[in-house]
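Recap from last week: sequence in, structure out.
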Amino acid sequence: EQARALGMEAVSVSREMDDKWTVARNFVWLGIVTAYKGDDYEEAAGFLEEGFALILEVGDWEWVAYSLDSFAVLAGAKAQGERAARLWGAAEALRKSIGAPLHGTDRPDYDRSVAAVRSQLDDAAWEAAFAEGRAMSAEEAAEYALSKEVAHAAERPLAGGGTRKPSPAGSGRSRLWWHKGSPPARSLKSW
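Predicted structure tokens:
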């Protein structure tokens, strides 16, 4: 509870300073903490959705990956194992493309959450869904994270009609670059 109170205070101070980047990170952090704590998934989703929109806007790709992890935790808590696996696959691919591996201090919560979701699926279903996530572009992963859908990613309808076909891993997917200390100026739409 103290962490939540401090996080909300940090959001308030960041808003007063008109620091969108810090507001975004604080909301995502609140979502991460609340998701991993596991006591209020709706509140976690609210924090994540608000922070994720801002994170995408400022282009902090490492925190996009953290957000995808947290959305995966939420999906796993709702017994949406394949959705969770896709989101974790997308987060892993993003981390690899920007050269920002998961921090060691985050590994125990991550491993515990992944293990819980893997137990919901057989190995083939896990591997297939994880591979689909790894094949998503950053824009597709962001759209998928914010959607409420649970359907198979390859069957997802596109806005203009038709269906999305997952691209093979590494096939012309946009590479995202994150620079320590300052977020890139580009928005997700420019990729």
